[in-house]
Amino acid sequence: MQTMYQQMDADALAQAIEALRAQVEEVKARGLALDMARGKPSPQQVDISRPMLDILSSDADLHDGNVDCSNYGFFEGIPSARALASEMLGVPAEQTLVLGSSSLLLEHDICGQFWRCGSLGSEPWADYSAKHNGETVKFLCPAPGYDRHFGITADLGIENVPVPMTGEGPDMDVVEAMVASDASIKGMWCVPKYSNPTGETYSEKTVRRLATMKTAAPDFRIFWDNAYCVHDLYDETDDLANIFDYTRGTENEDRVVAFVSTSKITFPGSGVAFVGASPAVIAEVSAFLKMGLISADKMNQLRHVRFLPNLDAVRSHMKKHAEFMRPRFEAVERKLAEGLGGTGCATWTHPRGGYFVSFDGPDGSAKRVAALCAQMGVKLTPAGATWPGEDPRDTNIRIAPSYPSVEELEAALDVLVLAVKLVAAELAAEERA
Amino acid sequence: MQTMYQQMDADALAQAIEALRAQVEEVKARGLALDMARGKPSPQQVDISRPMLDILSSDADLHDGNVDCSNYGFFEGIPSARALASEMLGVPAEQTLVLGSSSLLLEHDICGQFWRCGSLGSEPWADYSAKHNGETVKFLCPAPGYDRHFGITADLGIENVPVPMTGEGPDMDVVEAMVASDASIKGMWCVPKYSNPTGETYSEKTVRRLATMKTAAPDFRIFWDNAYCVHDLYDETDDLANIFDYTRGTENEDRVVAFVSTSKITFPGSGVAFVGASPAVIAEVSAFLKMGLISADKMNQLRHVRFLPNLDAVRSHMKKHAEFMRPRFEAVERKLAEGLGGTGCATWTHPRGGYFVSFDGPDGSAKRVAALCAQMGVKLTPAGATWPGEDPRDTNIRIAPSYPSVEELEAALDVLVLAVKLVAAELAAEERA
């Protein structure tokens, strides 16, 4: 599709650029300092979890059943926290671990374990290249996706291979064809619900195909980061199928390692993280992680489960979060539709949950838009960060609307709209020159 | 030295064995269930940290200076916590990280980093063997020492090499000779104050020699786990020299990576952990750990520093701990002296702090003593656990007196004394047969 600027005659385009540049100068003069860079809740949103802080007072019972949470022991996590993990991950409690404050760290450590030690008797991923003519180990990366995931595998020396998203998850025709024929593809990153940044949820068919597809690598592992499993904006939520329902008892039982954390449920960075997998994978992951950990912070586990004892309680709490998030997502939709609707300059997603909106401008625009926004005082996630390596068409920008107030967000989106228009107009002029 | 049983004539020895066996049967009949296995404080001792739980209530200011501790960010730790880390580690705050709840996990991850990536441009330890005729990477392990340290290096495939302890730290003549000539020795585990399990503190001379010795490996790293830095029993404490005073500004500046945690200051497993090293090493460790962590649990950091704002506050708090630990250590000394003094059957250490007493029985006795204690209802740390690999003379038992009450501890020590006597007597008889 052509942009409105590509359709203008030369004079009109020159006038449009002049007008837009004047607007940009006006905005620069206002000295804005707005941040749409990272998926952080606003301070007021964080405050809804403050009642949790009163639960473990100095006279509280610090036991969970017969587990003393105030002393060493119970590496796997306290029983109530494993029960909650079971509900959130969709596996029995015995197939869960509750560890630390960050699912990202668990993903990092478990991926590093498979790299160094292999999994369930397979050769270490680190040895693959030397044993297979220098062929690099690869990971499939649905893109646009989460930059920190791609960083973990890239840091290990794994080649990140982008796979297109379709609106109902990764393009499974592409995925199936690749994994069926290439044994160097050892795994895949997935954020299956309200995916970062597109906000799409994998369809039942996508989930089933991921669970049942044939892979050339017998030790193929899906890192199933269900970070936004309860992060709905509306009562009518996206439904995600339970991937373990399709792997349980099959030859693919060990394929999926699932992660959830409470970082965006209670206090960011100070939550508890859950892992779920097959009994065999949980056993090997436990044996590995136990080398470095006597037991995790069970006091924080206890604080969490007393505040949020089960999935129903979590869902009620998330409705309070939604009251902060919904007007922000709706402001994004409104401002983008008003500012760019019908211009041919952009498309964007319309998530019903999660933390992000994925925005695409004209080819070759994203880096220039981000730089121009920065000049106007609006910080965006670095353009291209959503792609492993380089965004091939330089179109994608991740919008993180959660942190600013609605007013600040609207101001920031006006800046983004202006930047996209000017860059689109300049691109049209350059194309002609 | 001979045991009293070796000095007996055959009849006396047979009678002694008969009498001891009868006592063992009596004890078995009592159905004891006592635990001297791990360095856990007693529940009453843990309770002295309960006032900390009231500090971060729902209406608390969750800022540390201008850092919002309730949201993402500040990977390196909050300023007040880094200031406390600086005091406890003996390096400037900029050379500290405050991360997670466990120093063991940081040791595990950082050792794994050096294994996979090397340090400051040196080749990865993982590559050493292939490039040097299959020679294994080695770590020096002062022994008896801490089993979980040895587990971390063993798990990486590093060969743990025991080094004798002298009463003022590892035998530095042995250490210096080994590291000077063998480039495959990449590092060393140290618990420099109230060492686990001997309770000895490295002398100033030992610390200086460790800091200044010549090593064949340019990337030699000392993992300086100062776990018991403030864990004194008496007002007159062991003094530990600050090893960084000897490395700062020298060619060995990057040698030492130091660790401290509050696990045995506040709540075991739910504390905060500190790392200190040279600016270059802190930078590379940060870059690595950031791959898997946005930020650590800053709420727990804030809770800790509001409760224990500086080293003086920590020392005052530790005096309360000492009131629980001192009678237990004194009970160990009293019971062992009463039961085994002058028998020639055992020697043991007399720590002025820490969590353990190191006990040595006759050659070939430790496993049998531990098994016999277990039959009598007393659980000890598995015999030999204090050694990397096997305890060569099978003499060493780690006594962990902290968890039981003084009465339970005395009962457990009576059992230990009885077991040592019977095993010593049986060994004397077997020697004669």
From TrEMBL, chains A, B:
Domain of life per record: Bacteria
UniProt cross-references to Pfam families, sorted A to Z: Asp_aminotransf (PF12897)
UniProt cross-references to CDD domains, sorted A to Z: AAT_like
GO MF terms held by the record: L-aspartate:2-oxoglutarate aminotransferase activity
PANTHER family in UniProt: AMINOTRANSFERASE, PUTATIVE-RELATED, ASPARTATE AMINOTRANSFERASE
Protein name, UniProt field: Aminotransferase class I/classII domain-containing protein
Natural source organism: Collinsella tanakaei YIT 12063
